[in-house]
UniProtKB/TrEMBL annotation:
Pfam families, per database record: UbiA
Transmembrane portions of the chain: 100-117, 123-141, 176-196, 208-227, 233-254, 266-286, 292-310
Principal subcellular localization: membrane
Name the record gives this protein: UbiA prenyltransferase
Species whose genome carries this gene: Halococcus thailandensis JCM 13552
GO (cellular component) term, any one: plasma membrane
Length: 313
Protein backbone atom coordinates (compact mmCIF):
# COMPACT_ATOMS: atom_id res chain seq x y z
CA UNK A 1 0.00 0.00 0.00
CA UNK A 2 2.79 2.36 0.95
CA UNK A 3 4.58 1.49 -2.28
CA UNK A 4 1.44 2.29 -4.26
CA UNK A 5 1.06 5.65 -2.54
CA UNK A 6 4.73 6.43 -3.19
CA UNK A 7 4.33 5.60 -6.86
CA UNK A 8 1.25 7.81 -7.07
CA UNK A 9 3.07 10.72 -5.45
CA UNK A 10 6.05 10.23 -7.76
CA UNK A 11 3.75 10.16 -10.78
CA UNK A 12 2.01 13.30 -9.54
CA UNK A 13 5.34 15.07 -9.08
CA UNK A 14 6.40 14.17 -12.61
CA UNK A 15 3.07 15.43 -13.93
CA UNK A 16 3.45 18.72 -12.09
CA UNK A 17 7.01 19.13 -13.35
CA UNK A 18 5.85 18.43 -16.90
CA UNK A 19 3.10 21.04 -16.50
CA UNK A 20 5.59 23.72 -15.46
CA UNK A 21 7.92 22.69 -18.31
CA UNK A 22 5.00 23.16 -20.72
CA UNK A 23 4.13 26.50 -19.11
CA UNK A 24 7.58 27.98 -19.71
CA UNK A 25 7.90 26.29 -23.15
CA UNK A 26 11.07 24.52 -22.06
CA UNK A 27 12.35 23.83 -25.62
CA UNK A 28 12.13 27.55 -26.41
CA UNK A 29 14.26 28.48 -23.41
CA UNK A 30 17.29 27.17 -25.26
CA UNK A 31 16.66 29.69 -28.04
CA UNK A 32 17.28 32.63 -25.69
CA UNK A 33 21.02 32.25 -24.85
CA UNK A 34 21.95 32.14 -28.56
CA UNK A 35 20.60 35.70 -28.90
CA UNK A 36 22.89 36.82 -26.09
CA UNK A 37 25.85 34.93 -27.53
CA UNK A 38 25.22 36.63 -30.86
CA UNK A 39 25.44 39.98 -29.07
CA UNK A 40 28.79 38.95 -27.65
CA UNK A 41 29.93 37.77 -31.08
CA UNK A 42 29.07 41.15 -32.59
CA UNK A 43 31.30 42.83 -30.03
CA UNK A 44 34.09 40.34 -30.73
CA UNK A 45 33.73 40.87 -34.49
CA UNK A 46 34.62 44.53 -33.99
CA UNK A 47 37.85 43.54 -32.24
CA UNK A 48 36.70 44.38 -28.71
CA UNK A 49 37.10 42.08 -25.73
CA UNK A 50 34.14 40.17 -24.27
CA UNK A 51 33.78 39.13 -20.63
CA UNK A 52 32.82 35.46 -20.76
CA UNK A 53 31.54 35.36 -17.14
CA UNK A 54 29.35 38.38 -17.84
CA UNK A 55 28.11 36.80 -21.08
CA UNK A 56 27.23 33.59 -19.24
CA UNK A 57 25.32 35.53 -16.61
CA UNK A 58 23.41 37.42 -19.27
CA UNK A 59 22.54 34.13 -20.98
CA UNK A 60 21.02 32.89 -17.72
CA UNK A 61 19.16 36.18 -17.34
CA UNK A 62 17.73 35.82 -20.85
CA UNK A 63 16.42 32.34 -20.01
CA UNK A 64 14.65 33.70 -16.92
CA UNK A 65 13.17 36.59 -18.91
CA UNK A 66 11.95 34.25 -21.65
CA UNK A 67 10.42 31.88 -19.10
CA UNK A 68 8.71 34.83 -17.43
CA UNK A 69 7.30 35.92 -20.76
CA UNK A 70 5.83 32.54 -21.70
CA UNK A 71 4.39 32.10 -18.21
CA UNK A 72 2.69 35.50 -18.27
CA UNK A 73 1.51 34.79 -21.79
CA UNK A 74 -0.52 31.85 -20.51
CA UNK A 75 -1.65 33.82 -17.47
CA UNK A 76 -3.18 36.55 -19.63
CA UNK A 77 -4.49 34.07 -22.23
CA UNK A 78 -6.15 31.73 -19.74
CA UNK A 79 -9.69 32.50 -20.91
CA UNK A 80 -8.82 32.16 -24.60
CA UNK A 81 -6.79 29.00 -23.97
CA UNK A 82 -9.74 27.44 -22.15
CA UNK A 83 -11.58 27.63 -25.46
CA UNK A 84 -8.80 27.07 -27.99
CA UNK A 85 -6.10 25.14 -26.08
CA UNK A 86 -7.76 23.41 -23.10
CA UNK A 87 -4.79 21.06 -22.75
CA UNK A 88 -2.48 23.87 -21.60
CA UNK A 89 -1.41 23.86 -17.93
CA UNK A 90 -3.71 26.64 -16.68
CA UNK A 91 -7.03 25.71 -18.35
CA UNK A 92 -6.39 22.00 -17.67
CA UNK A 93 -6.13 22.78 -13.96
CA UNK A 94 -2.54 21.53 -13.64
CA UNK A 95 -1.32 24.98 -12.53
CA UNK A 96 -3.51 27.64 -10.88
CA UNK A 97 -3.71 30.85 -12.86
CA UNK A 98 -2.68 32.99 -9.88
CA UNK A 99 0.39 30.81 -9.33
CA UNK A 100 1.38 31.29 -12.96
CA UNK A 101 0.99 35.06 -12.63
CA UNK A 102 3.20 35.23 -9.54
CA UNK A 103 5.77 32.91 -11.11
CA UNK A 104 5.90 34.92 -14.34
CA UNK A 105 6.49 38.19 -12.50
CA UNK A 106 9.14 36.56 -10.29
CA UNK A 107 10.97 35.18 -13.33
CA UNK A 108 11.06 38.60 -15.00
CA UNK A 109 12.37 40.18 -11.83
CA UNK A 110 14.90 37.38 -11.44
CA UNK A 111 16.17 37.95 -14.96
CA UNK A 112 16.74 41.64 -14.28
CA UNK A 113 18.53 40.93 -11.00
CA UNK A 114 20.78 38.27 -12.53
CA UNK A 115 21.75 40.64 -15.35
CA UNK A 116 22.45 43.39 -12.84
CA UNK A 117 24.47 41.14 -10.56
CA UNK A 118 26.59 39.49 -13.25
CA UNK A 119 27.18 42.31 -15.72
CA UNK A 120 26.51 45.58 -13.91
CA UNK A 121 24.02 48.47 -13.99
CA UNK A 122 23.98 48.87 -17.78
CA UNK A 123 23.02 45.22 -18.15
CA UNK A 124 20.34 45.68 -15.51
CA UNK A 125 18.85 48.56 -17.51
CA UNK A 126 18.83 46.52 -20.71
CA UNK A 127 17.21 43.60 -18.92
CA UNK A 128 14.63 45.89 -17.31
CA UNK A 129 13.75 47.33 -20.73
CA UNK A 130 13.41 43.81 -22.10
CA UNK A 131 11.20 42.78 -19.18
CA UNK A 132 8.99 45.83 -19.75
CA UNK A 133 8.55 45.00 -23.44
CA UNK A 134 7.69 41.40 -22.56
CA UNK A 135 5.10 42.48 -19.98
CA UNK A 136 3.56 44.99 -22.39
CA UNK A 137 3.30 42.38 -25.11
CA UNK A 138 1.70 39.77 -22.86
CA UNK A 139 -0.67 42.10 -21.09
CA UNK A 140 -1.66 44.80 -23.58
CA UNK A 141 -0.24 44.60 -27.10
CA UNK A 142 -0.71 40.97 -28.11
CA UNK A 143 -2.62 40.47 -31.35
CA UNK A 144 -2.01 44.03 -32.60
CA UNK A 145 0.56 45.33 -35.10
CA UNK A 146 2.34 46.95 -32.17
CA UNK A 147 2.33 43.57 -30.46
CA UNK A 148 4.05 41.84 -33.36
CA UNK A 149 6.74 44.52 -33.32
CA UNK A 150 7.01 44.28 -29.53
CA UNK A 151 7.69 40.55 -29.68
CA UNK A 152 10.28 41.13 -32.38
CA UNK A 153 11.81 43.97 -30.37
CA UNK A 154 12.14 41.66 -27.38
CA UNK A 155 14.38 39.37 -29.42
CA UNK A 156 16.35 42.31 -30.76
CA UNK A 157 16.86 43.59 -27.22
CA UNK A 158 18.00 40.12 -26.19
CA UNK A 159 20.77 40.36 -28.78
CA UNK A 160 21.69 43.84 -27.57
CA UNK A 161 21.75 42.52 -24.01
CA UNK A 162 24.66 40.32 -25.05
CA UNK A 163 26.62 43.32 -26.32
CA UNK A 164 26.79 44.62 -22.75
CA UNK A 165 29.29 41.83 -22.04
CA UNK A 166 31.82 43.84 -24.02
CA UNK A 167 34.44 45.10 -21.63
CA UNK A 168 34.94 48.51 -23.19
CA UNK A 169 32.09 49.50 -25.46
CA UNK A 170 28.39 50.09 -25.15
CA UNK A 171 26.01 48.87 -27.83
CA UNK A 172 25.74 52.42 -29.16
CA UNK A 173 29.46 52.33 -29.98
CA UNK A 174 29.05 49.38 -32.35
CA UNK A 175 29.23 50.05 -36.11
CA UNK A 176 26.05 50.37 -38.12
CA UNK A 177 26.32 46.90 -39.67
CA UNK A 178 26.44 45.31 -36.22
CA UNK A 179 23.49 47.33 -34.93
CA UNK A 180 21.48 46.34 -38.01
CA UNK A 181 21.65 42.65 -37.10
CA UNK A 182 19.38 42.89 -34.00
CA UNK A 183 16.93 44.81 -36.21
CA UNK A 184 16.92 41.95 -38.74
CA UNK A 185 16.32 39.45 -35.92
CA UNK A 186 13.50 41.63 -34.59
CA UNK A 187 11.77 41.88 -37.98
CA UNK A 188 12.05 38.13 -38.54
CA UNK A 189 10.44 37.33 -35.19
CA UNK A 190 7.77 40.00 -35.72
CA UNK A 191 6.80 38.24 -38.97
CA UNK A 192 6.72 34.84 -37.26
CA UNK A 193 4.59 36.27 -34.45
CA UNK A 194 2.14 37.61 -37.02
CA UNK A 195 1.82 34.12 -38.48
CA UNK A 196 1.37 32.64 -35.00
CA UNK A 197 -1.40 35.06 -33.98
CA UNK A 198 -4.27 32.72 -34.92
CA UNK A 199 -2.40 29.43 -35.28
CA UNK A 200 -4.93 27.51 -33.14
CA UNK A 201 -7.92 28.55 -35.26
CA UNK A 202 -7.64 30.10 -38.72
CA UNK A 203 -4.54 31.56 -40.31
CA UNK A 204 -4.59 33.60 -43.50
CA UNK A 205 -2.23 32.49 -46.24
CA UNK A 206 -0.88 36.04 -46.26
CA UNK A 207 0.35 35.61 -42.68
CA UNK A 208 2.39 32.59 -43.72
CA UNK A 209 3.73 34.58 -46.67
CA UNK A 210 4.77 37.33 -44.24
CA UNK A 211 6.75 34.81 -42.22
CA UNK A 212 8.39 33.56 -45.42
CA UNK A 213 9.29 37.16 -46.26
CA UNK A 214 10.85 37.44 -42.79
CA UNK A 215 12.97 34.38 -43.54
CA UNK A 216 14.17 35.86 -46.83
CA UNK A 217 14.95 39.18 -45.14
CA UNK A 218 17.00 37.35 -42.51
CA UNK A 219 19.00 35.46 -45.14
CA UNK A 220 19.61 38.68 -47.08
CA UNK A 221 20.74 40.23 -43.81
CA UNK A 222 23.40 37.54 -43.39
CA UNK A 223 24.60 38.02 -46.97
CA UNK A 224 24.70 41.80 -46.56
CA UNK A 225 26.70 41.47 -43.35
CA UNK A 226 29.18 39.15 -45.10
CA UNK A 227 29.65 41.63 -47.95
CA UNK A 228 29.98 44.59 -45.58
CA UNK A 229 32.39 42.99 -43.13
CA UNK A 230 34.42 40.96 -45.63
CA UNK A 231 35.51 38.22 -43.19
CA UNK A 232 37.85 35.32 -43.93
CA UNK A 233 36.83 32.56 -46.34
CA UNK A 234 36.14 30.13 -43.50
CA UNK A 235 33.82 32.59 -41.84
CA UNK A 236 32.07 33.36 -45.12
CA UNK A 237 31.48 29.68 -45.82
CA UNK A 238 30.21 29.13 -42.28
CA UNK A 239 27.85 32.11 -42.33
CA UNK A 240 26.46 31.41 -45.81
CA UNK A 241 26.16 27.68 -45.14
CA UNK A 242 24.23 28.25 -41.93
CA UNK A 243 22.01 30.81 -43.63
CA UNK A 244 21.26 28.22 -46.31
CA UNK A 245 20.41 25.64 -43.66
CA UNK A 246 18.13 28.15 -41.98
CA UNK A 247 16.38 28.83 -45.30
CA UNK A 248 15.86 25.15 -46.10
CA UNK A 249 14.67 24.20 -42.61
CA UNK A 250 12.12 26.98 -42.35
CA UNK A 251 11.07 26.60 -45.98
CA UNK A 252 10.20 22.93 -45.52
CA UNK A 253 7.79 23.90 -42.74
CA UNK A 254 6.40 27.06 -44.31
CA UNK A 255 5.63 25.36 -47.64
CA UNK A 256 2.86 23.07 -46.31
CA UNK A 257 1.56 25.87 -44.07
CA UNK A 258 1.17 28.15 -47.06
CA UNK A 259 -0.39 25.47 -49.24
CA UNK A 260 -2.91 24.45 -46.57
CA UNK A 261 -3.00 26.95 -43.67
CA UNK A 262 -4.51 24.89 -40.85
CA UNK A 263 -3.56 24.50 -37.17
CA UNK A 264 -1.80 21.19 -37.92
CA UNK A 265 0.48 22.87 -40.49
CA UNK A 266 0.81 26.41 -39.14
CA UNK A 267 1.58 25.32 -35.57
CA UNK A 268 4.59 23.21 -36.59
CA UNK A 269 5.73 26.00 -38.92
CA UNK A 270 5.70 28.47 -36.04
CA UNK A 271 7.65 26.04 -33.87
CA UNK A 272 10.21 25.45 -36.60
CA UNK A 273 10.71 29.17 -37.18
CA UNK A 274 11.27 29.75 -33.46
CA UNK A 275 13.86 26.97 -33.16
CA UNK A 276 15.49 27.97 -36.45
CA UNK A 277 16.34 31.33 -34.91
CA UNK A 278 19.25 29.51 -33.26
CA UNK A 279 20.64 28.70 -36.71
CA UNK A 280 20.13 32.30 -37.84
CA UNK A 281 21.95 33.54 -34.74
CA UNK A 282 24.78 31.12 -35.52
CA UNK A 283 25.00 32.39 -39.10
CA UNK A 284 25.48 35.94 -37.88
CA UNK A 285 27.81 34.83 -35.08
CA UNK A 286 30.03 33.07 -37.63
CA UNK A 287 31.14 36.54 -38.74
CA UNK A 288 33.13 36.68 -35.49
CA UNK A 289 34.51 33.16 -35.90
CA UNK A 290 33.52 29.52 -36.25
CA UNK A 291 33.90 29.08 -32.49
CA UNK A 292 31.16 31.62 -31.85
CA UNK A 293 28.87 29.87 -34.33
CA UNK A 294 29.45 26.50 -32.69
CA UNK A 295 28.81 27.94 -29.23
CA UNK A 296 25.42 29.14 -30.49
CA UNK A 297 24.55 25.90 -32.30
CA UNK A 298 25.10 23.81 -29.15
CA UNK A 299 21.78 25.10 -27.86
CA UNK A 300 19.95 23.65 -30.84
CA UNK A 301 20.41 20.09 -29.58
CA UNK A 302 18.37 20.37 -26.37
CA UNK A 303 15.88 22.69 -28.05
CA UNK A 304 15.07 20.22 -30.83
CA UNK A 305 15.20 17.23 -28.50
CA UNK A 306 12.78 18.74 -26.00
CA UNK A 307 10.50 19.95 -28.79
CA UNK A 308 9.61 16.28 -29.33
CA UNK A 309 8.18 16.19 -25.82
CA UNK A 310 6.73 19.68 -25.34
CA UNK A 311 4.95 22.17 -27.58
CA UNK A 312 7.05 25.06 -28.88
CA UNK A 313 4.24 27.42 -29.86
Amino acid sequence: MGGSEGTTRESGSRGKLAAYAALVRVPNLFSAPPDVLLGGALVAATGRAVSIPALAGLAVASVLLYAGGTTLNDYFDAVIDARERPERPIPSGAIPRRTAGVLGAALLLGGVLVALGTAGPRAGLFAAALAAVIALYDGVLKGTPAGFLAMGSARGLDVLLGTVAGTTAAAAALPAWALAIPVVVALYIAAVTYMADNEATTTERGAVAAAAAGVLLAVLGVLAAVVTLGPSLVRIVSAVGLAGGFLVWTGRALGPAYATPRPDTVGPAVGTCILALVVLDAAFAALAGVGWALAVLVFLLPAVGLSRLFNVS
